[in-house]
Amino acid sequence: MAGRIPQSFIDDLLARVNVLDIVEARVKLKRTGKNYSGLCPFHKEKSPSFTVNNEKQFYYCFGCGAGGNSLGFLMEHDRLSFPEAVEELAKLAGVEMPKAEGPVDHQREQRIKDTYALLQEASEYYQQQLREHPNKEIAVNYLKNRGLTGQFAARFGIGYAPPGWDNLLKKLARDEETKLRLEQAGMLINKEDSDRYYDRFRERIMFPIRDMRGRVIAFGGRVLGDEKPKYLNSPETDTFHKSRELYGLYEARKYNQSLERLVIVEGYMDVVGLAQYGIGYAVATLGTATTAQHLERILKMVPEVIFCFDGDAAGRKAAKRALDTTMPVITDGKQARFLFLPEGEDPDSLVRQEGCDAFEQRLNESLPLSDFFFKTLEEGADMSSLDGRARFSNQALPLIDQMQPGILKQMMQEKISELTGLSLEQLISVNNLQETTHAHATPEPDYYQGEPDYPDDGYFDYPPEQSDFRSDKKPGKEFTKGSKKFRPAPPGGSAVHFNPASTAVSILLHLPTLADHCGDLEILSAGQEETEKLLYQLNRYLQENPGVTPGILAVDWQEHDHLKPLIRQLNEIAHQTPIIDASNAQQVLSDCLNRLQERHLDREILQLKSQPHLSSEDKQRLNTLIMKQAGSRLRKAPEK
């Protein structure tokens, strides 16, 4: 893009991305205390002197002095110009680059600054109302009854939106332009039939939501009584994306020198109440269940995450949903736990009853992910019968197969063997046979039946009173029953359970130079299998762009409508297809391509034979194909 990139856009971009994600995709890192270290990519060294500080969002090499933020790393490592590096970061963050230079850029830059300034003004106004409004006693008494002190109310910037339809409107809307900005920031609602504005938040305790830099980006409001909706969140805006943000994360990082764990709770008051009693590492999601983005962000900062749920049926269902989200994200060295509170209690009320030490003891004794996983599955299976153990293994193996390769995944597979009395090889064979014979006959077993039954008591978006605003967007289901599942590979890394096209794609992703040996795969472009079409596009791209990295490939394909949908499929294959030993990768690739060509020969021969009348050209084509088929089988004969 030509022209100056607005500084506000760059600041917002750096706030959205994580330097650890950027560096770790290119450099092998190991956690050392609260930092991450590895061999410097900018000079040759034998012992690590390169470090990444995730808390302060910078990298530095003590050997050569290289250092900077995410943007600087991309420029140095990928040898990109400044605009190219900004553009790549924008693609990774899922935001659009500014469309044009000059006045439009300045207008957008000023608009974003105005939005942050208005949100800060709104936060200060709400805090002032908590101190000075004639009805402040109602709000103050509510907070006191919840055990909250003025010190912690101030720490979290808690305020009060008084009764009335236009308090904030009168205070901040100086002109029509400001009204529009407030609406875009989610603070006002425009009643279209009369073209009038009114406050979104009325007669509520107000909780400002801050980003990693401490800027107010949105609000959550809680009613003082039992009215519905109990909790109301800001809608999605230019500054607020609920699937990424966590309430209390800024405060947890600010008031803890060294974070070792984070606890995910359901409500704002739970976060504040726990902090007041000395547990200052709790966060809450904002109108959604915990997403993979939330977890990836958390596990880059701390080695342990604890989910805290009510002990009732709704809490159990929410926990299963969290487990489903966590399985594909968790890696070796990271830990997820599940804590269930006594029925009728929430973290805020329980910590007030028990105190900090007793509550932390509950956290320390919470169920590890593996224990909760097997306990949940065993509840629905009769482990004393052969049928029950078979059903248990058929449920467990596909879910474990979603996990990242590592020791934890291997130990969980071994645990299934221990519980069922079958070896891993036997379990995989049984599971594969089950999937093959019943794929179209019966639905696949699943212990996540339907959507989670979250309670109607808050923490999820509701329509504001007397308004047309709705939040119909449902959380993504990337790792749910509908997702594509791959069979687990047997020990030794064999790819026998994967089709030749996906195996060939995996080899080319890990060893892209082998694309030169593949020749022209045009025959696959018109195939019926999506993976074969993917293989054709990947091979063509690698041949046309020698030396390209998977990261650059992903960025390039994002720009082409016919290639963009294939990136997700590439990701699945890259993570779940076993990596072939490099020493025989070329031979395996050649075998895969031969099998694919034979398959296409068989299909074309069958198609020609099925026609009632063949032209002379078709007969000649058929004879040629049959000769090729015979030659292929003769070449394979010595292998039998």
Structure notes:
The protein has 26 helices and 16 strands. Helix 11 links the parallel strand 12 and strand 13. It has 640 residues and is of the alpha+beta class. Helices cover 48% and strands 11% of the residues. Helix 3 (70-77) crosses helix 4 and helix 17 (386-401) packs across helix 19. The strands form four sheets. The chain has a five-stranded antiparallel sheet with strand order 1-2-3-4-5. The chain has a five-stranded mixed sheet with strand order 13-12-14-15-16. A four-stranded antiparallel sheet has the order 6-9-10-11, with helices on one face. The longest helix has 30 residues, at 103-132.
Structural class: alpha+beta
How far from one another are the termini?
59 Å
Radius of gyration (CA) equals: 29 Å
Question: Mean pLDDT, as a whole number?
Answer: 79
Query: Outline, from the CA principal axes?
Result: globular
Task: Report the strand count.
Answer: 16
Largest sheet: 5 strands, antiparallel
Instruction: Summarize the amount of helix as a percent range.
Output: 40-55%
Given the structure, what is the number of helices?
Answer: 26
Function: RNA polymerase that catalyzes the synthesis of short RNA molecules used as primers for DNA polymerase during DNA replication.
Family: Belongs to the DnaG primase family.
Cofactor: Zn(2+)
Subunit structure: Monomer. Interacts with DnaB.
